[in-house]
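User: Hey, my collaborator sent me this sequence without any context and asked if I could get a structure. I don't really work with proteins. Can you help?
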Amino acid sequence: MTPLSPLPYSGYFSDSETYVESLLDFAASSDIFQILCGGVHILDFFTREPDLYASVLPRSWREWFQEWDVEDVLDLLMREDLDQFATLPQDIAAEGQQNQELSLTEVSWRGGRSPPTSLLRYIRDIRKHLLRRDFQIPATSGPECSMQGNLTRKIAVGMKPKKIHEVLNFSRYVDKLASEISRDAPSEITHLVDFGSGQNYLGRALASHPYHRHIVAVESKRHNIEGAKSMDVTARLAEKEKLMRHKREYRKYRSRKDLSDSGGEALDGCSTTLGDFPEQPDAKAATGAMARSSFREAEIIHLNHEGKGSIQYIEHMIDGGDLSPVAQQIEGISRVADHRNTAGPAEGRTLVGCDGLNSSDNDQGLEKHLSPGGDVCRDEPLDDPKAVNGGSRTIPHQQCHADIPATPSPPQSLMIISLHSCGNLVHHALRSLILTPSVTAVAVVGCCYNLMTERLGPPTYKLPTLRPRPNPRVVATSAACDPAGFPMSERLSTYSHKHGQGIRLNITARMMAVQAPQNWTPADSADFFTRHFFRALLQRIFLDRGVVSAPSAPGDIVGGSPANPDAMGTEPIIIGSLRKACYSSFPSYVRGAVAKLSANDPVRGPVIASLMSGLTDDDIAAYHARYLPRKRDLSVVWSLMAFSAGVVEAIIVLDRWLFLKEQQHVVKDAWVETVFDYRQSPRNFVVVGIKERKAAALAL
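Assistant: No problem. I've predicted the 3D structure and written it out in structure-token form, which is a compact way to encode the shape of the chain:
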């Protein structure tokens, strides 16, 4: 179960502690790394004097870059074997010697001059501190091999190839992990709790054949839950609600309703029988009202049926590691008796979920079923087409009676899972292992690092380039001091270095960490570079036209701050995506961006439109011609930023692992490994934590 190494570090390091110390030392001491990861922003490329390219990169690097295409630079950064170059002496990196270069004229590269030694050293440092992303699908044998090879068509409904790859591999991984934990733990894993389940692709796969797991899908957005339940129907895991009317009684109801509407005898008060049809547009509303009252207890019943899976949807906003509100709902379900009526539902009658009721013309059987003296429990495999969606969760069902004595259910043992949960949601999942007694293990894959908050206060900037941009979002996030933010571990929070104490990653660095440069094709690269060039050049026009403000000090950065906060507010100017046609030329881009800002922002839109008025296509073309020779410089810097940001992701993943390792009184084991192919899904690291057996036993 546990991999040979708790972290997938490179073979350069002998153990995890050596890797951790080297990574933190590099991140805190390398000025060029700090500048490329958080110290510069692409919007500032054409708005600074002196030029950003010249002020950030050493002269020897710039001179060498001028001789090569950007694709060659990308190959050197990520793919070229560096062993072909001479070994670099250790003392060249000493302070004050950064610009000294060794003569490597005896070594050529691709028929040209060899890269500068300091550039090669930087590339080596980045590469050796990246976490390895190798992934191999675990070999299976026996009947499981054919069962787990692919998702069935009905389970894969709505998934793109990337999502299919993720769900297929992560569901296999989670099932195997849960089974191995159950063998060693005091109690087997009873439920898999999916944090931020979204459309519940993962839960749907794990609840179905061949896994048959019991899933608790926790999601804060109601429309996502409704969408997931709709997909359950499409996947034939749940039956679509059917409205069945007693035609004769319904005709009577309609005739009386028409009479009432025309001024005749008023309709009597509502009755509790289906045939009376209370004053509602149709029988569905009456049916729903009875179902909500008669099935009130059924809404909290979720019985474990051996060998079959189930899904329970819970609408809940996760804002901390204490999962008591979620666990209590699951506990309330598990405490209800698991009594099954072997006779099954009466002939001619079908039971359904909380929001509706299917019936036949057998009104006597229906009224008997809904009588005050009886109760309804539902316990049916999810794979059965009769299973339906409840009001806020999908709950299997079957008839039972209240006069049967209750039997306590086994204690719960929860495993938190998450497939690409954004920002702090991963932090909450990891803390739930510590704060929630019934949580036995966690296995989470994160993404969207830019949505994490920051735990530490603003740092003391030694380098002018690292000063915070006058961007309210950047300033606010760094000053928030959110205890749930990054870094989680005390190791990173208290790490001492030349700039102060604590490892800090601002939002610019974290946004770059979600890049996947190893997956870039030449066409992808050209597209990225064109888009970034257009946006950076538009920022130059914004500066010249007074839309954004000029730097207030020589070392400050523009970064999108509005020039007139009183008239335009303090939020940075964000354009977002535009129509594909807008990227056909720079004038089209400028017109499209200004039109979008003018139309979508009722406060700032008129101000921007006024400031940009009078700008002709010839003026825009002149800007493009003037700055086009520097597009290549921007592309080189962006490539270096994306390449270096792999270390930022390594720091974030390391911090989460260290947090679990620091909880020695609770956590038995913790590790990080890859669960996806990087080419299919770049965010492919899963962080796993398993609770101590004693702690788990006490919780049970």
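In plain terms: DSSP finds 25 helices and 13 strands in the chain. You can pass these tokens on to your collaborator as they are.
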